[in-house]
Write a structure and sequence with these properties.
The complex is a heterotrimer.
Chain A (H helix, E strand, L loop, with lengths): L4 H12 L10 H12 L4 H11 L3 H10 L11 E6 L2 H5 L2 H12 L5 E2 L5 E6 L11 E3 L2 E3 L4 H13 L2
Parallel strand pairs in A: 1-3
Antiparallel strand pairs in A: 1-4, 2-3, 4-5
Chain B lengths: L28 H6 L4 H7 L3 H10 L12 H7 L8 E7 L9 H7 L1 H15 L1 E8 L4 H16 L15 E6 L9 H8 L23 E5 H5 L1 H7 L1 H7 L7 E8 L5 E6 L2 E2 H8 L9 E5 L8 E2 L6 E2 L1 H6 L8 E6 L4 H15 L5 H21 L2 H14 L6 H16 L1 H9 L6
Parallel strand pairs in B: 1-2, 1-4, 2-3, 5-11
Antiparallel strand pairs in B: 5-6, 7-10, 8-9, 8-11
Chain C lengths: L3 E6 L2 E6 L4 H7 L23 E4 L6 E2 L10 E3 L3 H16 L15 H9 L16 E2 L4 E3 L9 H9 L5 E4 L6 E4 L12 H5 L5 E3 L12 E6 L8 E7 L2 E6 L13 H5 L14 E4 L2 E4 L2 H17 L4 E4 L6 H14 L5 E2 L6 H7 L10 H6 L2 E5 L3 H4 L1 H14 L2 E6 L9 E6 L5 H6 L2 H5 L4 E5 L6 H12 L4 E5 L6 H6 L11 H6 L5 E5 L15 E6 L4 H4 L3 E4 L8 E4 L4 E5 L11 H12 L8 H11 L7 H5 L4 E2 L32 H6 L13
The chains are: A alpha+beta, B alpha/beta, C alpha/beta.
Bound molecules: flavin mononucleotide, iron/sulfur cluster (4 copies) and FE2/S2 (inorganic) cluster.
Chain lengths: 160, 430, 685
């Protein structure tokens, strides 16, 4: 399996930064960076990461199931993550999530038919004092209201 | 135009760690150097490791990650003369609900944290460090990587730190979504490329941590507090707070307040003043119902318990904790059943699954709370919630089990009437 | 000597080794501390939280499985808090457990069932819905039922640490965590079933045993595996003369809980439809059944005529028949038939081995030595494939005692994961590879050298000379292939004093009689003599049996008593577990033939023959009680020079999933044969 030159560069650095013989340490970061490019963690990627990190595919597979950001099925081009944990809950996080469901017509960890959007109700993502918070891919949005989120989604749709 | 911050500072703050936040370019090494940067490191370089640790002890700094363990003492546990090389790990997993401060320290002042790490390196004779950052903070990992690259290029990391001939390498490491990886030993397993399952203690990380090497692990804020401590002396830092509770800390105020935000307040700062004055009080003039004092893992306080100074010892005395600095304010309109359910959904989702009481306990509790919330509660569920939580308490493999049990016990015990109200409603049989 | 400490458990003063685990100390003193995840052979988990105990002056309950005992410790294991905690944990556990004991294979020997019975969770307060997942089949022998799994991780550790395979892992997180196989949806592994055996509940079940019977409906017969030479004890679960299960749960054998796929599952050849059940005579129409008396008299007549005529006999004995049978056969050949032409398929150079070690009484390693010795050198063998139990012993030694392992082999071997030195050599270059480790080996405290058939003749003498030159105590294991290869040699099924070897017999154009007992020499060779009368005793119509004039249906090792000697020279007792209609044991066949021929070769009862063996065979004067009670008695045949023998020596190089001619008749082995020879990456150093 080959990745983009940029990613290969990141991986090359990654594999060097741990003590001698500890390439297994790169498993988690390698998976998440690769997922961003490949779209999901499939069997081929598992085997590739295993090969590069010198572990068994099972050892990689175990990790994939554990971390909630790693997905075995592709998410949308824009992965909308709405926090409903306590700080967000108190200021409308759940209502925001409900409205996002309606707007996108999909539920938790589902993908729109055109593959553009996916939705996930997530746990606290460290934006509590600027709640309710949404993260789209890796971009944070603070003090989000249903209206703001709808606009955001519309602008992403238009950007295509 | 003034720099756009996450939230406007409050005049009531004591800005020690956050004093550069508002400066244009505060994340750059140049700005850092112009504003006291690396003075502490150069000073520490002239000190003995013992003297550095003594200074940290004198500051009465306690870990800002949640457990509040005295930092100087922790540093003194690392076997500095072990034949095995030592490793420094920064806990930037920041996942405790209600907590969002480490993010700012890295975003606005990464070099302060780097300097703190380097000083720790001097104190325990370590030459390599890893910043474990939660996967959701990808933008922050990128910022941290840029800061590290800048420090390397200007000689503040690498083979000749600040021209002293001393060597230190620093790297970032991304998580991938797991609250449990904030627990220090689970973090180490994750750093080693495994599932984030906590480890048995002893051995403590100080003796056998990452890759079996002696490891010093602290929170982002803990490391960030080191440069001011060394620069101005431990005593000066300690004096900002109350006895045994040195310095300031970044308090993340969220929930029902007019001006939520992260504010740097000295330890011992009155809780009500923080709510009413720093955070601008509760919107709409509503009344306070409860406060989560330091992240979702802490037993919740009723309004009447909140007239206290915020320090570790006072909170412990009233049966709660200062935790991670995540202070969540709940007004009178809050439904505590819904709140308890949301907390338990979190812990169930984040339980690593290793041990029975936490894995099954959080699930059972969540199911009861869910049923209760959906209107199918039974009277006996109220006591069952408490009893099951107590069956978890103190019996799990790591502190996550306790973290799930404690808030639940406090909510069912202190806010029983919220549960009663559900029972009084028209209900459908299960 | 380790330091001792005094502690108090439940009011009793107890002395124990400092640092010993509390759970062990309690158990050794008859105080039961319940646990699911704790297993003395494997790493500590502290996951099930069943072993919580109260220790005075400690605020929280502590887990007994990871707490070392200390001087002055005061422990309570039956206080109210402890009982309540246990009950609470069990209650949690049962919330996600289907409690379908009546249809569960484990019912009756389930640790969870026992635990609930003893420590009680009483009426469940759980009224919510349980999480359901369908049962999965992972391999021909391994099935997994996730809801029953209590996540004790014993299977994961048994596979990883014990087997060195690492085929099982943990998937997902939290309450949906589950055990996962290495290939995503199926297993590719040793198929040893260790995971199934070690599972305290009915989550992992065996393809061959599923839904066959209930534990209490079986008889348990402890006998010795009939496949490789390692001599594992296997306890066969027998229901009305039918073997339905093999395991070693009582851990009474040298192999402790270990068994490989063959020992655990490959008993099914016993019931194979092609099993011979009547003597047969070759006619123009092919083989036709005849009666036992007819067959015996035909053979006896032919044998008698040939003896009288001074004709040429060739006798080929077996690697699988008992010592008693081998002894009797050798005697039959020499005294009854007057021939020296007796041999068997030799798979290791024991003649040179015993000769080279002559006068060195302490140089034969026992299987236990492999677990206790400080250093092990493996030369020219892939133990995980051919000697799974020896390989297991070495891994256990590495895990528990940090043994230094050296591997000098032609390809990668599983021992590489434990080895401090792995040396790759061309076939024939083994000695040079061994020599390259001289300095390190000299510095070891003691050493066991395990070597395969690449080391024979001169090379073997050189290897022993190398061992001598190290200046440390060295013991050896000369590898041979099958369950009684060693016994066949020791009992003298050999062309001694100028007899013809197996090859020479087959090549002799003037051979009059070929008598083959439990062997298949014509599988890859032709019989030169056109006139030879061929008699074959076997379980199946093998390539050799197909050419026989008379075929006699023999009982297998699982259908007879007697003794066998394993690769380390340990004598163990077989116990009959099953009975196949129409067959006779080889010993009985010999006896009947001798009687028919009017020969006086002694009584042909196994015990009587063994008595004679103890008196007459070098090194076999072993203590009877050890053997009689199912123990392994070491033999000491190193008391004299051994003459060289004609003929070749070659291992059949079986894999984990083959067993000479037998594997063809084991459905289990055929089913799992997909990936023999594969190396697995269990956790190493
Ligand atoms: C379930 C759990 C989650 C935790 N999450 C974090 C975290 O996100 N960040 C953090 O710094 N400490 C976290 N901790 C605390 C760490 O285990 C550890 O005590 C801390 O990082 C040590 O650093 P300090 O002494 O500087 O606080 C967590 C602890 C537990 C039990
Ligand atoms: S308490 Fe147990 S199950 Fe929960 S997170 Fe800790 S180790 Fe995992
Ligand atoms: S090798 Fe043995 S223990 Fe491992 S999965 Fe296969 S059958 Fe189970
Ligand atoms: S399958 Fe059995 S041995 Fe494996 S974890 Fe589950 S209960 Fe334990
Ligand atoms: S290792 Fe050998 S003796 Fe043991 S069970 Fe396997 S085949 Fe039988
Ligand atoms: S609770 Fe939503 S970001 Fe913290």
């Amino acid at each position: 399996m080959t990745f983009s030159p940029q990613l290969e560069e990141i991986f090359a650095k990654m594999l060097q930064q741990y003590p001698e013989g500890r390439t297994r340490s790169a498993v988690v970061p390698m998976l998440i960076y690769a997922q961003d490019e490949v779209g999901s963690v499939n069997r081929e990627l598992i085997e590739e990461v295993a090969r590069r990190c010198k572990v068994t595919p099972l050892q990689v597979d175990e990790v994939v199931g554990y971390y909630s950001m790693l997905h075995r099925k592709p998410m949308g081009k824009y992965h909308v993550q709405v926090c409903t944990n306590i700080s967000c809950l108190l200021v409308g996080g759940e209502e925001l999530y409900e409205s996002a469901k309606k707007k996108l017509g999909i539920g938790h960890k589902q993908v729109t038919a055109d593959g553009q959007f996916s939705l996930e109700e997530v746990e606290c993502m460290g934006a509590c004092s600027w709640a309710p918070a949404v993260e789209i891919n890796y971009d944070f949005h603070h003090f989000v209201t249903p209206e703001k989120l709808n606009q955001l989604i519309d602008s992403l749709k238009r950007a295509q | 135009m003034a720099k756009q911050l996450f939230n406007q500072p409050s005049p009531l703050e004591t800005m020690v760690l956050s004093k550069r936040f508002a400066l244009e370019g505060s994340e750059t090494l140049d700005v850092y150097l112009k504003n006291d940067g690396f003075k502490a490191f150069l000073k520490a370089k002239e000190m003995t490791p013992e003297a550095i640790i003594d200074e940290v002890k004198a500051s009465a700094l306690r870990g800002r990650g949640g457990a509040g363990f005295p930092t100087g003492l922790k540093w003194s546990f690392v076997p500095r003369t072990s034949p095995k090389p030592r490793v420094i790990v920064v806990n930037a997993d920041e996942s405790e609900p209600g907590t969002c401060k480490d993010r700012l320290l890295i975003e606005y002042d990464p070099h302060q944290m780097i300097e703190g790490i380097l000083i720790a390196g001097l104190a325990v004779d370590a030459h390599v460090g890893y910043v474990y950052i939660r996967g959701e903070y990808r933008y922050l990992i990128e910022k941290m990587d840029r800061a590290i690259a800048e420090a390397y290029s200007k000689g503040y990391l690498g083979n000749n730190v600040a021209g002293t001939g001393w060597k230190f390498d620093l790297y970032t490491h991304s998580g991938a979504g797991a609250y449990e990886c904030g627990e220090e030993t689970a973090l180490l397993d994750s750093l080693e490329g495994k599932r984030g399952i906590p480890r048995m203690k002893p051995p403590f990380p100080a003796v056998a941590g990452a890759w079996g090497l002696p490891t010093l692990l602290n929170n982002v804020e803990t490391f960030s507090a080191i440069p001011p401590i060394i620069r101005d002396g431990g005593a000066a830092f300690a004096a900002l707070g109350t006895p045994k509770n040195g310095g300031t800390r970044l308090v993340c105020i969220s929930g029902h307040v007019n001006k939520p935000g992260v504010y740097e307040l000295p330890l011992g700062f009155p809780m009500m003043k923080a709510i009413d004055e720093v955070a601008g009080g509760i919107p709409g003039g509503r009344k306070l119902k409860a406060v989560v004092p330091g992240g979702s893992s802490c037993p919740i306080l009723t309004a009447s318990e909140c007239d206290i100074p915020m320090d570790y010892d006072t909170l412990a005395k009233i049966g709660s904790m200062l935790g991670s600095g995540g202070m969540v304010v709940l007004d009178e309109t809050t439904d505590m059943v819904r709140f308890a359910l949301r907390i338990m959904r979190f812990y169930q989702h984040e339980s690593c699954g290793w041990c029975i009481p936490c894995r099954e306990g959080t699930t059972w509790l969540r199911k009861i709370l869910q049923r209760f919330y959906e209107g199918h509660g039974r009277r006996e569920d109220i006591s069952l919630l408490g009893e099951l939580s107590k069956n978890m308490l103190g019996r799990t493999f790591c502190a996550l089990g306790d973290a799930a049990a404690m808030p639940t016990i406090s909510i069912v015990e202190k806010f029983t009437e919220d549960f009663e109200r559900y029972l009084a409603r028209e209900t459908v049989a299960v | 000597m380790a330091e001792l400490v005094k502690l108090n458990i439940n009011g009793r003063e107890i002395q124990a080794e400092k640092g010993a685990l509390l759970i062990e100390v309690a158990r050794q003193n008859g105080i039961e501390v319940p646990a699911f995840c704790y297993h003395e052979d494997y790493t500590l988990q502290a996951a099930c939280r069943m072993c919580l105990v109260e220790i005075e002056k400690t605020p929280k309950l502590q887990v007994g499985c990871t707490t070392p005992v200390a001087e002055g410790m005061v422990v309570h294991t039956e206080s109210d808090v402890v009982k309540k905690a246990r009950k609470g944990t069990l209650e949690f556990l049962l919330t996600n457990h289907p409690l379908d004991c009546p249809v569960c294979d484990k019912g009756g020997e389930c640790e969870l069932q026992d635990m609930v019975f003893r420590y009680g969770a009483g009426e469940s307060r759980f009224v919510e819905r349980k999480h359901h997942v369908d049962e999965k089949q992972w391999s021909p022998v391994v099935f997994f039922d996730a809801p029953r799994c209590i996540l004790c991780y014993r299977c994961v550790r048994a596979c990883n640490e014990g087997m060195g395979v690492g085929a099982l892992g943990i998937g997902n997180r939290g309450v949906i965590s589950e055990i996962v196989p290495n290939q995503g949806d199926h297993l590719e592994c040793d198929e040893c079933g260790a995971c199934i055996d070690i599972c305290p509940v009915g989550a992992l079940t065996s393809g061959s045993y599923r839904y066959q019977t209930r534990p209490w409906e079986m008889d348990h017969v402890g006998t010795i595996c009939t496949h490789c030479a390692d001599g594992c004890k296997t306890t066969l679960g027998v229901r009305v003369d039918k073997i339905v299960r093999g395991n070693n749960r009582d851990r009474s054998g040298i192999n402790n809980e270990f068994l490989c796929v063959k020992g655990r599952y490959a008993f099914d050849f016993v019931e194979h439809p092609e099993r011979l059940q009547s003597p047969m005579l070759k006619t123009a129409k092919g083989h036709e059944p005849i009666s036992w008396s007819k067959a015996i008299s035909l053979i006896a007549n032919k044998f008698g005529e040939t003896v009288l005529a001074g004709g040429k006999f060739g006798v080929v004995g077996s690697n699988h028949t008992t010592n008693e049978e081998n002894f009797f056969l050798a005697k039959f050949a020499r005294e009854g038939l007057g021939t020296k032409n007796i041999d068997h398929h030799r798979t290791g150079d024991l003649a040179t081995f015993f000769d080279a070690l002559s006068g060195k009484p302490d140089s034969l390693a026992s299987s236990g030595d492999l677990y206790n010795v400080k250093a092990v050198l493996v030369v020219g063998s892939d133990l995980a494939q051919q000697h799974p139990f020896l390989s297991f012993q070495i891994r256990a030694n590495f895990r528990h005692h940090n043994a230094h392992v050296y591997a000098v082999t032609s390809g990668p071997v599983r021992e590489d994961n434990q080895a401090i030195a792995s040396v790759r050599v061309q076939k024939g270059g083994e000695l040079a590879g061994v020599e390259s480790q001289r300095d390190k080996l000299k510095a070891e405290v003691n050493l066991v050298i395990v070597f395969g058939d690449a080391i024979q003749g001169d090379a073997l003498r050189k290897l022993v000379a190398f061992g001598d030159s190290l200046g440390i105590p060295v013991k050896y294991v000369c590898l041979v292939d099958y369950s009684n290869s060693r016994g066949a040699f020791d009992m003298g099924v050999l062309p001694r004093d100028g007899g013809l070897s197996r090859e020479q017999v087959l090549a002799a154009a003037d051979l009059d009689v070929l008598w083959v007992v439990g062997a298949n020499p014509l599988k890859n060779a032709a019989l030169a003599s056109k006139k030879a009368f061929v008699v074959v005793q076997d379980l199946f119509l093998s390539e050799t049996a197909q050419q026989a004039d008379i075929v006699l249906p023999a009982a297998s090792a699982y259908e007879k008593s007697g003794t066998v000697t394993n690769v380390c020279g340990e004598v163990q007792k077989l116990k009959a577990a099953a009975k196949v209609m129409g067959t006779k044991t080889d010993l009985e066949i010999f006896g009947l033939l001798a009687k028919e021929m009017g020969l006086n070769l002694g009584i042909w009862l196994p015990d009587k023959v063994f008595e004679e063996i103890r008196k007459t065979v070098h090194g076999y004067n072993v203590p009877l009680p050890i053997v009689a009670t199912g123990g392994a008695a070491p033999t000491m045949p190193l008391n004299g020079r051994v003459a060289a023998l004609p003929g070749s020596i070659a291992s059949a190089n079986d894999t984990l999933f083959t067993s000479g001619s037998l594997s063809k008749y084991s459905n289990v082995l055929n089913a799992v044969m997909e990936s023999p020879g594969k190396l697995y990456g269990g956790e190493g150093k």
